[in-house]
Amino acid sequence: MTRPEPRPGEQDGQVLRWNLFIGGHLSSSVPVRLVARTEEGQTVWLETGTPMWRTRLPGRAHLRDIPPEDRPAQGYTVTADRWPMGSALIHQPTAAGHAVFWFFGRKQKFRGWYVNLERRVHHGEDIDVADHELDITVSPDHVWQWKDERSFAEKTGHPAYWSADEAAAIRAEGERVVRCVETRSFPFDGSWCDFRPPPHWTTPHRPPAPVRTVL
Q1: What are the angstrom distances between the C-alpha of 207 and each of 5, 16, 30, 149, 211?
Q2: How many angstroms separate the CA atoms of 47 and 50, rounded?
Q3: Which of 119, 160, 163, 206 could form a Cys-Cys staple with 68, CB 3.0–4.6 A?
Q4: β-strands 51-55, 78-82: how paired?
Q5: How far is 100 from 126, CA to CA, in rounded Å?
Q6: For 117-160, how does the pLDDT look when each residue is reduced to its tens digit (9 = 90+)?
Q7: Please, what's the largest Cα pairwise distance for the chain?
Q8: pLDDT-based confidence at 114, cuts 50/70/90?
Q9: Taking Cα atoms as reference points, which of 148, 200, 157, 161 lies closest to residue 24?
């Protein structure tokens, strides 16, 4: 991977919507600010506590645990919420099947990387992400591990998710990223671990509720 340079302040901090879909249904919609956009990819900033929308589900269920055939055809309604995880810088390489998150904790301390295997489609201000379930966590000292392997295997072959051939391609994408982890090449070379958003940026307001909840 090449190393693009995010240049905070050179962009206008445009607010985009990061929409996560699981099995074709919307899971969450969170406003993010654009940090930089180059030929190599796009980088956005997600602030902890950002007002967002989340799918309203029965009990404490998670969308990934509800078979698509048991979901309403028109998708679930959404409810107002706030982004509960830490702040994150998210790099979305052009034409790649993954995104890399730099997660930050209290006092903007770098907590590690998270590799989300995914398929992205851009529609104006919307970044629609079809989640591929299988992910990779990487600690600050470059210890990595696969995440959700069992769930990924269980979903393989379901028409709402991916075929066996597609699953092999998804894992191969992850293996390419792992080689970057092991060689400590970008994005795991220490770049952006001290990132700070421009001080004049405020936390985005909650946008209007999503109209489209099904891909």
Answers
A1: 28, 10, 8, 34, 11
A2: 6
A3: 160
A4: antiparallel
A5: 18
A6: 999 999 999 999 999 999 999 999 999 999 999 999 999 999 99
A7: 47
A8: very high
A9: 161
